[in-house]
Amino acid sequence: MSRRLRLNAFTMNVVSHIVQGQWTRPDTRQRDYTSLEPWVELAKLLEKGRFDAIFFADVIGAYDVYNGNRDAAVRRAVQFPVNDPSALIPALGLVTEHLGLAFTLSILQEHPFSFARRASTLDHYTRGRVGWNIVTSYLENAANNLGYRGLPLHDTRYDRGDEYLDVVYKLWEGSWEDDAVLADTERGVYADPAKVHEIDHRGEYYDVAGPHLSEPSPQRTPVLFQAGSSERGREFAARHAEATFISARNIRGARANVDDLHRRLVLAGRRPDDLLVFQGLTVITAATEGEARRKEREVQEHLSDEGTFAVVSGWLGTDLSAVDPDAPVGDLRTNAQQGIVKSLAEAAPDKTWTFRDLIFSIANRRIVGTPEHVADELERWHVDGGIDGVNLTYTTTPGSFEDFIDGVVPVLQDRGVVQREYHEGTFREKLFDGRVGPRLADTHPGTAYRRKAVVA
Ligand SMILES: Cc1cc2nc3c(=O)[nH]c(=O)nc-3n(C[C@H](O)[C@H](O)[C@H](O)COP(=O)(O)O)c2cc1C
């Protein structure tokens, strides 16, 4: 398979993630999110469908931008309540063998020293199947929950992110030498003290002595995902990420975004294929076109407008109750997610995008139809848009994933577009089809912190 399409299931440890209002339906298990069973069953299903990963979004604050309060978000369960996604990883690792297990953690949320240990621990328990989605947060309430007294400025958050990554690279890649662990029962020596090193990081945001508390895990550094696509976000992706999520409005926008990322990767001294680009898409499929359209109507009937406005207001950092829907978005300035505005110009540079268009494009970025039609469309995104993978959003769970796995996956497999079997090894080896080993590729800046590199 030359350039296969990768599949991620996009989910969140919540009642309602992206498509709002669907939790009220009898045919979804979203309300069961506080039990382990639906998650365990979903992971097994995804592995049966040869998905690359289950991917958990996360936020650490309430959506309180719409109407200037959190009432709509609380009422409609808009990513609230939200449980910790990383707590699910060991259970999902135990019931699967190959599925990648990726979760989100904001660099504002936790000190890099304790996070590095948590990630290493999870990478041990899953035998190297962990991925980390590095985000910088966009909700004021999240920052206020963590003692920042307001959301730090957009680009400053990424600056902090750069230093956060430097700290964790030092811990994961540089603190323990490969042969530090001896586990020599004869001599009673577990590890060689000469091969376990402090990191002595002194920076603008963090001072960390080290050594790292965990011994090296299979991947050392988990597979690094990222999801910001502002100017600064793309620069950050080109430096650190091995996979990035984009939210292009159409195929033209995806191509522009992908080309821009490839250009930035080369400038950062990496190869274009060092970064896999995943597009977020919702698929509604059934055996016949008519049945798929019926399912779409069902989604529309349950869609919560208030929930949609609450979530998009949070992403944009702009209260949509106070905006004329027919006003042009223009070059809306926001301290929240800047990549959304950028994606509009890339999708249709000559169009005057209104807020109504923007909300519609978010709520309706769907592929609806028979498995053959969906496969055709995904191939267009893949070939013409240049994406490497899809981040599949659900309307019902596990129903959306079941429909996709039963209907679309076999068609894509017959066309040689998606994998039939998993590659051996860690999540990183599987994702890159063995082109990269269990650890960071040599072109990745994190490798500069490896002991040999530091000593040389
Ligand atoms: C598809 C997608 C998924 C995202 N998922 C999350 C998430 O789960 N948690 C979060 O805090 N931010 C998430 N973000 C936000 C970004 O990661 C980023 O930290 C921030 O909003 C700034 O983005 P920008 O560079 O586009 O301005 C997501 C963004 C996109 C496009």
Provide a descriptive summary of the structure in words.
Helix 8 links the parallel strand 10 (243-246) and strand 11 (276-285). The two termini are 39 Å apart. The chain has an 8-stranded parallel β-barrel with strand order 1-2-3-4-9-10-11-13, surrounded by 8 helices. Strands 5-6 form a two-stranded antiparallel sheet. A two-stranded antiparallel sheet has the order 7-8. It has helices at 37-48, 71-76, 89-95, 112-125, 140-145, 154-174, 231-240, 251-267, 289-302, 305-316, 339-347, 355-363, 371-383, 399-414, 427-431, 451-455; strands at 6-12, 53-57, 100-106, 130-135, 181-184, 189-191, 201-202, 207-208, 223-226, 243-246, 276-285, 366-369, 389-393. Helix 8 (251-267) crosses helix 11 (339-347). The model has no long low-confidence stretch (mean pLDDT 96). It has one domain (6-309, 363-455): Luciferase-like domain (TIM Barrel, Alpha-Beta Barrel). Helices cover 39% and strands 14% of the residues. The protein contains 16 helices and 13 strands. It is α/β, with parallel strands linked by helices. The structure holds flavin mononucleotide. Flavin mononucleotide binds next to strand 3. Pfam families: Bac_luciferase (PF00296).
